[in-house]
Write a structure and sequence with these properties.
Layout (H helix, E strand, L loop, with lengths): L8 E2 L6 E2 L5 E5 L6 H12 L3 E3 H9 L3 H8 L1 H17 L5 E3 L8 H10 E7 L2 H8 L13 H16 L4 E4 L5 H18 L6
Parallel strand pairs: 3-5, 3-6, 4-5, 6-7
Antiparallel strand pairs: 1-2
Helix pairs in contact: 1-8, 2-4, 3-4, 4-5, 6-7
């Protein structure tokens, strides 16, 4: 018998059918990987709300993330980030959630995502990340030296941890619609592999 939670349904009048995930879809990855851009499009394709953890943190703090870093430091930011993501993961309805690049590095946050979400790592090469993050000047971590060197170090330390995500999708310079399609296909394949009753 087919699980009703996985009935295919149209995400839009003209789009292909999309699966209905039983838990919030959590996008992880380094800054510049496309979590927000792809996340918005993925949410539309799935017919789900989109939430951005960074925007939620700014709303809760009453200031921008660069301002928060400057006032309180990274440790306090990570504590606030953990609380906000914990709240978002348990909020209804199921949604697509874009997280900050360091969120998944926190063991408690990883456990929460594992228990309440489906994690998708948007993996990008160094040169792609450098090009994308160079378009905006709102990345506190990249203000601490040469951005390419910083991103290279982040890749070295974070990619082995990101590899624990439920799903990995390579993002490159393909059009956003194509990258979103890859993520949707990978999510469908992941859900299809889950045993009945555990989905």
């Amino acid at each position: 018998m087919t699980d009703s939670r996985y009935q295919l349904r149209p995400a839009s009048r003209s789009g292909p059918p999309a699966v209905a995930p039983p838990r919030t879809v959590v996008l992880i990855g380094l800054m510049g990987a496309g979590k927000t851009s792809i996340g918005r499009r993925l949410a539309t394709r799935l017919g789900l709300p989109f939430r951005d953890a960074d925007h939620e943190i700014e709303a809760a703090a009453g200031c921008t993330i660069p301002e928060f870093f400057a006032r309180y430091g990274e440790a306090e930011f990570r504590a606030g980030e953990r609380r906000v993501i914990a709240r978002l993961l348990t909020e209804e309805p199921v949604h697509v959630l874009a997280t900050g690049g360091g969120a998944y590095m926190d063991p408690q946050t990883r456990e929460l995502i594992r228990d309440h979400g489906i994690s998708i790592w948007l993996k990008a090469e160094l040169d792609v990340l450098v090009a994308r993050t160079g378009r905006r000047n709102n990345r506190p971590l990249l203000r601490q030296g040469n951005p390419k060197d910083i991103l290279a170090r982040l890749i070295e330390t974070r990619y082995p941890v990101y590899a624990g995500a439920d799903v990995t999708v390579a993002t490159d310079d393909a059009p956003l619609a194509e990258s979103t399609g890859r993520v949707l296909a990978a999510l469908k394949a992941y859900l299809a592999r889950q045993p009945e009753g555990t989905r």
